[in-house]
Amino acid sequence: MMSLPAISELTPEVAPERVPFADLTGMHAPLAGELDAVWAQTLATSSFIGGPLVDAFEASWASYCGRKHAIGVANGTDAIALALKAFGVGPGDEVLVPAHTFIASAEGIVMAGATPIFVDVNEQTLLVDVALLEAAVTDRTVAVLVVHLYGHMPDMDAIAAFAERAGIAVFEDASQAHGATWKGRPAGSFGAAATFSFYPGKNLGAFGDGGAVVLDDDDATARLRSLAFHGRAVEDRYLHPLLGINSRLDALQAGILSIKLKHLDDWTAARSRVADRYLRTLTELAPEVAAAVVRPLESCGSAWHLFVVRVAHREGVREQLGAAGIESGIHYPVPCHRQGAFENEDTAALPVSEHAGATVLSLPMFPHLTDEQVDRVAAALVSAVRR
Ligand SMILES: *Cc1c(COP(=O)(O)O)cnc(C)c1O
């Protein structure tokens, strides 16, 4: 029998002076004992799909988000499709969505059978903007999918007022915003339903794929549970009145998420401290670079999923950071309306999204980033931008 490789062979060597883009080990190592117990419990109970670990996580996630229900699903993209379908959004319906987002926001709309209508974003926030949304409404528009990109939330009061005027529903793609707030109210608590991804790199991440929908409506919740479970009837497991899919959160993942959820607020606070230090250091070193950071609005408590700054000559800047041992990322270089997958859609120019795609640069951001690392990144960025 083939033996498994030793852990040391699987762990990439990270030179101490390197600053990684993200580091999940710092979050998980102190929880190793608790996390092991999830495995032991699953081994002992053989409760792999559904069961007490899933029920417990769903209850705590609903309560964390200020919602009546949470439904665990397989990933954040399914979550979007299922949430829309559960509220009857489907073929013939148009859903407004920002062009500057991860493509999954749009994929979920297509998976529900509806048509994504790409809307440009606000120049300052890079989030949806009510004036731009307003102009995109047609008589087929049924909803807007607001994306809390980078962990920042748009003006949710203005969005609610717009949706009310337009007679459409609000959905939140909160996959980057676990623990964010708008005027103290949690991301996920606005609109008809909100969706989350628990992909490992998200602010609350599983040890594999996972996702959830949170909502209050009982009927939509029942429909969503059925749709995610082969469309089966509640009263008879052999009857399938709906055409569903198989999209469930595994018990192992739910158990891991429950343990990590207890630390989410601390991790969010740590991310916020990292962001503050970046901003303070950049302001001291180079106010023009600090001014180019994509910041949350005043009323938003950001989840700081990413720390994004806009730079000209991005490739050169990234190369210089790389030479200084600093990893960086781009979220996202090509806006959705310019992706090959959507080339048959109406691809009118959306200038802010296109300019954002060409200039955004994501710096290392994770809860255990040290002050020294932040200062090194900030100094390296300033010298790369000024070169
Ligand atoms: C990660 C992400 C998703 C999709 O989540 P998956 O779990 O990878 O399917 C959707 N929207 C946004 C904004 C995301 O960042």
Biggest sheet layout: 7 strands, mixed
Q: For the largest beta sheet, what order do the strands appear in spatially?
A: 1-9-8-5-4-2-3
Helix content: 40-55%
The portion of residues forming beta strands comes to 5-15%
Gist of the model:
Helix content is 40%, strand content 13%. The protein has helices spanning 7-10, 25-28, 32-45, 52-64, 76-86, 104-111, 130-136, 156-166, 218-227, 251-285, 287-290, 314-323, 351-359, 371-386; strands spanning 69-73, 94-98, 115-119, 141-147, 169-173, 181-182, 185-186, 193-197, 211-215, 300-301, 307-310, 360-363.
Would you mind describing this structure in some detail?
The structure is a single chain. This protein is α/β, with parallel strands linked by helices and 387 residues long. It is 40% helix and 13% strand. The protein has helices at 7-10, 25-28, 32-45, 52-64, 76-86, 104-111, 130-136, 156-166, 218-227, 251-285, 287-290, 314-323, 351-359, 371-386, and strands at residues 69-73, 94-98, 115-119, 141-147, 169-173, 181-182, 185-186, 193-197, 211-215, 300-301, 307-310, 360-363. The strands form three sheets. It has a seven-stranded mixed sheet, sandwiched between helices. The chain has a three-stranded antiparallel sheet with strand order 7-6-10, with no helix packed on it. Strands 11-12 form a two-stranded antiparallel ribbon. Helix 4 packs parallel to helix 10 (251-285), helix 5 (76-86) packs across helix 6 (104-111) and helix 10 (251-285) packs across helix 14. The longest helix is centred in the C-terminal third of the chain and has 35 residues, at 251-285. The radius of gyration is 21 Å and the shape is globular. Residues 75-77, 101-102, 104-105, 147, 173, 175-176, 197, 199, 209, 211 line the site of pyridoxal-5'-phosphate.
